[in-house]
Amino acid sequence: MMDGLRILLGNEPLAYREVLQTAVALLRPAVQVSVVEPADLDGAVRRWQPHLVVCSRSEGAPGGPLGWVVLYPEGQSAAHVRVDSEEVALPDMELDGLMALIDRISLLVRMACAPRPGMDACGAG
To answer: Cα–Cα 20 to 30 A to 71, which of 17, 38, 57, 109?
Structure first.
């Protein structure tokens, strides 16, 4: 189950954000999705603390969320994906690739938040 998984969409153009929001809502209904204008992305990341950010620019991408997807950077037909410290450049990212990435990040979140002996969920003691 992916309760609590947060995705922030701040990519261009607006129509792509809306399509991605609808697709994630249909295919992963337990995922929380928020949509922002690209200019508001940095502030939204700080406030909402998403697990995954999908955007169209690479500035500000290091650190913070578990995953970043930069779609069509500088108008190129490409995607740059970072999960934890692993980065990969892809010639393109299809919807099934994004869904697989969401599933991967969901697993990482669940593993990080699994209760351990003597600790609450997410490592609180």
So the answer is: 109
Lowest mean pLDDT among 78-82, 106-110, 118-122: 118-122
Q: Count other C-beta atoms under 10 Å from residue 115's C-beta.
A: 11
Q: Is 53 helix (H, G, I), strand (E, B) or coil?
A: strand
Q: How far is CA 62 from CA 48, 54, 90, in A?
A: 17, 13, 18
**DSSP label of 65:** S
Does any domain span residue 1? no
pLDDT tens string 75-99: 788 899 999 888 999 998 899 999 9
Bridge partners of residue 55, in order along the sequence: 10, 70
Could you identify the residue written with the tokens 């410290």?
Answer: 85
Q: Is residue 111 part of a domain?
A: yes
Q: Which domain holds residue 59?
A: 6-123
